[in-house]
């Protein structure tokens, strides 16, 4: 059973360890100093940022991280993505990681994604869909999205998180289920 709780500063040492793991560092390409983690994740934990960071818990133990936000709250991101796909005003996005390498490749990623999408529908009733751009070479990530019910709706060049990656990204989307 996957449950969620908001990321707290006391989780930063675990998050730093995850960000340093090769399977995470390859795609997140994030600074891992204490200062960088506090700089980049602190505002959301204190409610000073529009993004929301959650720890994924499996049987109560932290196993991953999901960040979510409205794309419209990130104007530079919105402007970069808009030429590739139509962006509804209420679209949200997520980014995610599984912290420990031994937990990858066993279906946890799609379960985490699907669980967070369900939470988005309940926490953000205005959200009409969730869109996620993924660097095309990150097959494991875009396959996890597909297994969680997302469909590919576009592709094109975006600035990659890791400068070693080609700019080609696939854009995935899942729509809020109809209530009728």
Automatic annotation (TrEMBL):
PROSITE patterns per the UniProt record, alphabetical: GNAT
Pathway terms, separated by semicolons: Siderophore biosynthesis; mycobactin biosynthesis
SMART domains hit by this protein: AlcB
Biological-process GO terms, alphabetical: response to antibiotic; siderophore biosynthetic process
Any one GO molecular function term: N-acyltransferase activity
SUPFAM superfamilies registered for this protein in UniProt: Acyl-CoA N-acyltransferases (Nat)
Positions of the N-acetyltransferase domain: 2-177
Top-level taxon of the source organism: Bacteria
Keywords: Antibiotic resistance, Transferase
Segments forming a coiled coil: none
Alphabetical list of Gene3D superfamilies matching this protein: 3.40.630.30
Job of this protein: Acyltransferase required for the direct transfer of medium- to long-chain fatty acyl moieties from a carrier protein (MbtL) on to the epsilon-amino group of lysine residue in the mycobactin core.
The name this protein goes by in its record: Lysine N-acyltransferase MbtK
Organism from which the protein derives: Frankia canadensis
């Amino acid at each position: 059973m996957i449950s969620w709780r908001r990321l707290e500063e006391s989780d930063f040492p675990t998050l730093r360890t995850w960000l340093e793991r090769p399977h995470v560092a390859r795609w997140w390409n994030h600074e891992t100093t204490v200062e960088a983690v506090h700089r980049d994740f602190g505002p959301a934990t204190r409610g000073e940022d529009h993004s929301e960071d959650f720890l994924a818990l499996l049987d109560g133990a932290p196993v991953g991280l999901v960040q979510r936000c409205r794309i419209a709250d990130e104007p530079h991101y919105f402007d970069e993505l808009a030429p590739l796909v139509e962006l509804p005003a209420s679209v949200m996005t997520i980014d995610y990681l599984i912290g420990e390498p031994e937990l990858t490749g066993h279906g946890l990623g799609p379960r985490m994604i699907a669980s967070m999408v369900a939470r988005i529908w309940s926490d953000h009733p205005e959200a009409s869909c969730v869109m996620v751009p993924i660097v095309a070479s990150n097959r494991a990530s875009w396959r996890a999205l597909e297994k969680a019910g997302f469909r590919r709706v576009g592709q094109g060049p975006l600035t990659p998180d890791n400068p070693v990656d080609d700019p080609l990204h696939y854009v995935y989307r899942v729509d809020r289920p109809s209530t009728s």
